[in-house]
């Protein structure tokens, strides 16, 4: 066997190893999903190796995807796109060209990426905002908040809060010709986490007079108490967000010290003085029956008490919006929640839906059967999935009817 064919053989075996991962059967584009999965896992392995060799922080390697997907702020015949700043925070602004003098709706959008990755300029996010602006004839403000590992909680929250608060001033809305009655906030994954946190905090902010009409939470991360929910157990190795990566994201949001991640992995870290929070993520109570399947509820086991002093933000509702009393949920605006079947974060979303409904907040819940985490990003280029395009269309259509 020649050198070339040997290399080819080894490459094929490696590719087959990477590509093969038993994925959900009811997915129509199984082979495509496997390739996407293989791509993400390869990147994850590279990041792990580079980190072990001391070459780069794990997230620095993972950021490659964000850079590779870079799309410049290009205006087209329908939408003017500019990179600018609001309240000193960079944003990408989409302003529709049609009917320039009439009052418009507005969407404040927060991208995902585990508080560490992603960006407004990623082509999938750029397209999502562009389509939203175009089809809704709405102003879209996509926020370029600062990321971990360089910046930790609450910087990410504070950046998105600063932009939202700035934009909701009457004078600013007027300047952008936006109808104050028709402003919504939306975000996916870590962006959904930030959107939920911002919406809650706005309720208690005496400076903000204009209310959000809608919050859209697209497969959001909402709690830091129980990392062994049925969805974490059932979807431990699902693309594009395996449990290990989600725990790493949570950990990096607060610190680069990996001892936090190790503590989270044991699911025995909530100090006794925080055990009153268990009830907010009691999935035995908050999860609809059909998602419990054969799982048996066990309450998380309290862990070491010094954890709470070391990472005080970990149970802060600005980081974990599910961890608040009912009184903090009352008064939230119409909420649209999207969850995916094969997603570790599924139950975070499902439990928020139950808790919001219980206190009378109007909630529309869309559950995407057969879908993986990040479905709305699968809208273009090599990541394109039919299901992704359908999910994007449904989301925009819903906004168009309700905002
Ligand atoms: C969780 O809910 C179940 C059923 O509603 C209840 O029996 C249990 O005591 C609860 N546990 C906690 C920690 O809240």
Verbal overview:
By secondary structure, the protein is of the alpha/beta class. It has a domain at 65-224 and 315-402: Rossmann fold. It is built from 16 helices and eight strands. The chain has an eight-stranded mixed β-sheet, sandwiched between helices. Strand 7, helix 15 (346-358) and strand 8 form a beta-alpha-beta unit. Helix 5 crosses helix 7 and helix 9 crosses helix 10. The longest helix is centred in the N-terminal third of the chain and has 23 residues, at 30-52. It starts with a helix and ends with a helix. Bound molecules: 2-acetamido-2-deoxy-beta-D-glucopyranose. 2-acetamido-2-deoxy-beta-D-glucopyranose is lined by residues 278-279, 282, 284-285, 299.
């Amino acid at each position: 066997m020649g050198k070339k064919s040997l290399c080819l053989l080894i490459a094929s075996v490696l590719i087959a190893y990477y590509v093969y991962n038993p994925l959900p059967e009811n997915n129509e584009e199984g082979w495509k999903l496997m390739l996407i999965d293989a791509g993400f896992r390869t990147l994850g392995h590279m990041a792990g190796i580079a980190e072990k060799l001391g070459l780069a922080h794990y997230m620095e390697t993972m950021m490659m995807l964000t850079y590779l997907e870079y799309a410049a702020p290009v205006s087209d015949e329908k939408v003017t796109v500019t990179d600018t700043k609001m309240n000193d925070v960079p944003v990408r602004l989409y302003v529709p060209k049609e009917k320039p003098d009439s009052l418009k709706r507005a969407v404040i959008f927060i991208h995902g990426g585990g508080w560490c990755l992603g960006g407004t300029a990623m082509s999938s996010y750029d397209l999502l905002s562009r389509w939203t602006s175009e089809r809704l004839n709405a102003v879209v403000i996509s926020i370029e908040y600062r990321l971990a590992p360089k910046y930790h909680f609450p910087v990410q929250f504070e950046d998105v809060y600063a932009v939202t608060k700035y934009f909701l001033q009457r004078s600013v809305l007027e300047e952008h010709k936006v109808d104050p009655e028709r402003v919504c906030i939306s975000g996916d994954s870590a962006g959904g986490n930030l959107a939920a946190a911002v919406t809650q905090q706005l309720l208690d902010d005496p400076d903000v007079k204009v209310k959000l009409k809608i919050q859209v939470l697209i497969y959001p991360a909402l709690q830091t108490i129980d990392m062994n929910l049925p969805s974490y157990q059932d979807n431990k190795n699902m693309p594009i967000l395996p449990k290990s990566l989600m725990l790493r994201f949570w950990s990096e949001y607060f610190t680069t010290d990996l001892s936090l991640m190790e503590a989270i992995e044991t699911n025995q870290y909530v100090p006794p003085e925080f055990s009153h929070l268990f009830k907010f993520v009691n999935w035995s109570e908050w999860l609809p029956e059909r998602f419990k399947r054969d799982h048996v509820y066990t309450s998380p086991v309290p862990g070491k008490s010094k954890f709470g002093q070391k990472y005080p933000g970990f149970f802060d509702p600005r980081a974990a919006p599910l961890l608040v009393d009912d009184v903090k949920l009352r008064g939230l605006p119409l909420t649209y929640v999207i969850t995916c079947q094969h997603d570790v974060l599924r139950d975070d979303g499902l439990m928020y839906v139950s808790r919001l409904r219980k206190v009378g907040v109007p909630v529309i819940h869309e559950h995407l059967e057969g879908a993986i985490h990040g479905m709305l990003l699968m809208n273009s280029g090599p990541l394109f999935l039919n299901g992704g395009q359908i999910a994007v269309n449904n989301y925009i259509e819903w906004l168009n009817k309700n905002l």
